[in-house]
Amino acid sequence: MSLWEAIVLGAVQGLGEFLPVSSSGHLILFQRMFELKQDLLLFDILLHCATLLAICIVMRKEIISLISHPFQKSVGYIVLSVIPTVIIALIFECYFESLISGLLLPVCFAITGVLLVAQWMQKTSKKEGFSVLNKGKAIACGLVQGIAVLPGISRSGATVSTLCLMGVNREEAVRFSFLMSIPVIIGSVLLEGLKMQGNIGVTPACLIAGCVSAFVFGFASLRFMLNVFTKKGQLPFAVYMFAVSLLSIFIG
């Protein structure tokens, strides 16, 4: 892996983690384009750590509030959402590993596009706060987040679309989606870390460059999602996902 490839992959992870475009799907796509064959497990883990740091900084007030008041409803909803996510993710990990490797990448990209179009067509609730969020919606969102372990299905796009389709205000749907992603990202990092066999796969310079790139682009994309995406439409992302779906058919 060259230095510029590490920077590009870091940018892909940072942008894709928070924009509704699937970071895992794009990482697989770009690794295929760059013809990278080495084991990049540690590299991918540290890229996730970099984007986790970005979300902790950008949403520090919300995170501190949740930690300071652990018995509020929002914490309960996050816990409820994590349970089905973990169950589904483990099922895919144990029994459908080929799907996690990107076997259905074009189909999954297209599914994300359909979800974004559905959200674009939906008139969401105008209520503020988490008042329209309940246990059932949190669990449903967790189920969708679990399915989004498939590369190509955007975790943020799928969860935000699901919440909006169930009547949750888009701004709060985006915030809840990112808050519920924190324990999932931590869990995935720990799980992948246990599978790691000590093979770095890239030079230290590439590792650092990729992580810095992932943090910078992750920080920017998260701020964009919170400040712009909540007020503007997501149709351009849907069109993009359909285009990437077609492109991924020819990149094997």
Keywords:
mainly alpha; 12 helices; about 250 residues
What report would you give on this structure?
- With 252 residues, this protein is mainly alpha-helical.
- Helix content is 75%, strand content 0%.
- It contains twelve helices and no strands.
- The radius of gyration is 17 Å and the shape is globular.
- The two termini are 19 Å apart.
Unreliable parts = 124-131
Distance between the termini: 19 Å
What overall form do the CA principal axes indicate?
globular
Largest sheet: none
Strands, total number: 0
In terms of DSSP E residues, the strand content is: under 5%
Overall mean confidence score, pLDDT: 86
Write the layout of secondary structure elements.
Blueprint: H1 3-18, H2 23-33, H3 41-58, H4 60-68, H5 73-95, H6 97-100, H7 105-121, H8 135-147, H9 155-165, H10 170-195, H11 204-229, H12 235-249
Brief overview, please?
The chain is 75% helix and 0% strand. It is an all-alpha fold and 252 residues long.
